[in-house]
Design a protein that fits this description.
InterPro entries: FUR (IPR002481), WH-like_DNA-bd_sf (IPR036388), WH_DNA-bd_sf (IPR036390). Pfam families: FUR. 37% of the residues lie in helices and 20% in strands. With 152 residues, it is α+β, with helices and mostly antiparallel strands. The protein has a single domain, classed as Winged helix-like DNA-binding domain superfamily/Winged helix DNA-binding domain (Arc Repressor Mutant, subunit A), CATH 1.10.10.10. The strands form two sheets. The protein has a three-stranded antiparallel beta sheet with strand order 1-3-2. Strands 5-4-6 form a three-stranded mixed beta sheet, with no helix packed on it. It is globular. The protein binds zinc ion (3 copies). One zinc ion binds next to helix 5.
């Protein structure tokens, strides 16, 4: 368990280095949470998971710098809250290429990046220019599908 924690920390530190981000306690802790969870996390999810270790502003700045550097992308969730997930494609400063489906589970409420589902190239009428495209689906996720509803 301790070994696993060490590896996670190393992984987080390597990522910060790769993305030219200075190592701070908050950045490392937040990154570890993203690496540990396979679903997207909102600002308040992170606040809950981190406890009282960091204030809202520090957390806000951390997420902002991650997004700027192409480490995480934001997802406008159907629930209305903005969630963040690690970029798996090659993203860099101000250039995100996260054109995959975001799946929102109506049972557990989590949002997942489905990298294997790529948004097809979209052709728009003349005069329209796309800055970002959001592709989302709602339904039951893999783990909820495998777990019978409580009470049954
Ligand atoms: Zn990205
Ligand atoms: Zn689910
Ligand atoms: Zn995503």
């Amino acid at each position: 368990m301790a070994q696993q924690q060490k590896e996670l920390r190393k992984q987080a530190q390597d990522l910060l280095l790769k993305f030219n981000l200075r190592k701070t306690g908050c950045r490392i802790d937040v990154l570890e949470l993203f690496l540990q969870n396979h679903f997207a996390l909102s600002h308040s999810d992170l606040e809950k998971l981190l406890g009282d270790d960091y204030d809202r502003v520090t957390l806000y700045r951390t997420l902002h710098s991650f997004k700027e550097q192409g480490l995480v992308h934001s997802i406008n969730d159907v629930s209305g809250s903005v969630k963040y997930a690690l970029c798996r494609e090659v993203c860099s400063n101000h250039q995100h290429h996260d054109n995959h489906l975001h799946f929102n589970c109506t049972r557990c409420g989590q949002t997942f990046c489905l990298d294997e589902v790529v948004i097809p190239a979209t052709v728009l009428p003349e005069g329209y220019q796309i800055d970002s495209l959001h592709f989302s689906a709602q339904g039951i996720c893999k783990s909820c599908n495998a777990t019978p509803l409580a009470g049954f």
